[in-house]
Amino acid sequence: MNGCPKCGGPFPCLDHAHAGSAQARGFTTGVLAAVSLLLAAGCGPDQQHGTVTGKEYLPAQTTWQSVPVTKSVCTLAGGARKSRSCHTVTAGSRQERRTTPECWELEIDNTSTVCVSERTWHRIRAGSHY
Prior knowledge:
This protein is α+β, with helices and mostly antiparallel strands. The chain has helices spanning 22-40, 118-123, and strands at 52-58, 61-77, 83-100, 103-108, 112-116. It contains two helices and five strands; from the N terminus they run αβββββα. A three-stranded antiparallel β-sheet has the order 1-4-5. Strands 2-3 form a two-stranded antiparallel ribbon.
């Protein structure tokens, strides 16, 4: 089928009743998967481009950070008309794990960095355009 039978636009047209068909759902799922792969590969709209001025491999890292734990403490005050007053206090801390994935980093124009695939990192040389 070359186009939407209702509006003539590209099929599957997601604006009409057949949007719930298996073919339309398959198309939508395929598009979403392709967009996800492009973004995961670093090909999103925020991708930096320019002259490669440096390269560095940053291994995956796990660090621990102490995060304060708080609780609310409330008190009642007053005679017949009791009022409640609450405030937050620190009640210790807990350790939070922070993980950073490995990064095959390219420095672009001495101003920004971007993580790329290992294959791209090995292929690109300093002075090349990325």
